[in-house]
Amino acid sequence: MSTGTTINIPKLEISAEERDKNKPTSESIDAAARLLRETGLVVIESVLPSDWIEEVNVAMQAVLDMGEKTENGTHPMLEMPFMDARIIDNPYAMPIMKAVMGEKIFAYLPYGCNSTAPGSEIQWIHRDSGQLFPELPFALPVSTIVVNIPLVDFTVENGATEVWPGSHLIIDDEAVRNTPYNVCEEERAAQLPSFQLVMPAGSVVVRDMRCWHRAMPNRTRTRRHMLALVYFRRFHHAPDAPNIFNARVPEEIWTDLSEDAQEVYRFQAHD
Ligand SMILES: O=C(O)CCC(=O)C(=O)O
C-alpha cells in the first residue's frame, strides 16, 4: 500500500526485446519524453554492457591521470573508446532528446566527465542552465540537456548525484539569476523533494540542465566517474543557408565598428 510519500527516480522500463535490439519503441520514447518534461530527467538502467563500461572507466582514469598533457596533439577523448557510438550517438538518449528538442539538436566534442575523488566534499546545489527567458514568470520547454553515463555503480556511499525532480520548472528570483550556475540556497531546496541517483554503471540519464543537482561526498576509496554530454536545441537556422553570413566585410570597415556592433554581427565573415 502507498504511504503517501513517493520520491521515485523517474525510470523508463524497457522490454527485453528493446534491450536486445538496442532500440526503444516509439511508445517508450513517448513515455521517456513525458517523464523528462514532467520531472526533468529520465533514467534508463543498465543499457551499456558492464564489461565494456569497466574498460571505459579505466581509460577515463588514464585520461584524468594524464592531466593537461596530451599525446601527439590529439585529444584523448576524441579517440576510442570515448568516441564509441554507444556513448556519442546513444540509441536511447538520441531519440528521447529529439522528441523533446527537435531533430536539429547539436553538441560539441570532446564531452566532459564529472569525477569525484575519495573524501570529496558535498557540492553546492545548482542548475547547469538557467531558464531560456529568465525574466518570464514561467518556464519554457527544455532547450539544453545533459546525458550522463555512470562508469561505476552509483551508490549513496560513493556520492551518487542528488537531484530535485521538477526543479527545472522553478523560476529564480533576480538575485539568483545573476549568480553563476544559479546556485540554490540549501534552506529552500531542503523544503522540496530530492533523491540520489542510485543506479548501476552503464545506465543512461537524460537530464534537463535546469534541474537543481549536486555531487554528494564520496566516502569510498575509489574514484567515481560519470560521462557528461551536453546537447542543445537549434533555434535559428539562418547560418545553414548558403550566402547568409558569408559576404566578407573588409577588415578596415570591420575594425571601425563599435564593440557592440561587432557583437551583433559576430557571425559575419570579415577580412
Ligand atoms: O558529479 C556529480 O554528481 C554531478 C556534478 C555536476 O553535474 C555538476 O557539477 O554540474
How are the elements arranged and paired?
Layout: H1 16-21, H2 26-39, E1 41-44, H3 50-66, H4 85-88, H5 93-101, E2 106-107, E3 112-116, E4 144-150, E5 162-163, H6 174-177, H7 186-190, E6 195-196, E7 204-208, E8 213-214, E9 224-232, H8 251-256, H9 259-264
Antiparallel strand pairs: 1-7, 2-9, 3-9, 4-7, 4-9, 5-6, 5-8
The chain binds 2-oxoglutaric acid.
Description:
With 271 residues, this protein is an alpha+beta fold. The protein has two domains: 16-235, Jelly Rolls (Sandwich), CATH 2.60.120; 236-271, no CATH class. The chain is 26% helix and 14% strand. The protein contains nine helices and nine strands. It has helices at residues 16-21, 26-39, 50-66, 85-88, 93-101, 174-177, 186-190, 251-256, 259-264, and strands at 41-44, 106-107, 112-116, 144-150, 162-163, 195-196, 204-208, 213-214, 224-232. Strands 1, 2, 3, 4, 7 and 9 form a six-stranded antiparallel beta sheet that branches. The longest helix is centred in the first third of the chain and has 17 residues, at 50-66.
Task: Give a short overview.
With 271 residues, the protein is an alpha+beta fold. The protein has 2 domains: 16-235, Jelly Rolls, CATH 2.60.120.620; 236-271, no CATH class.
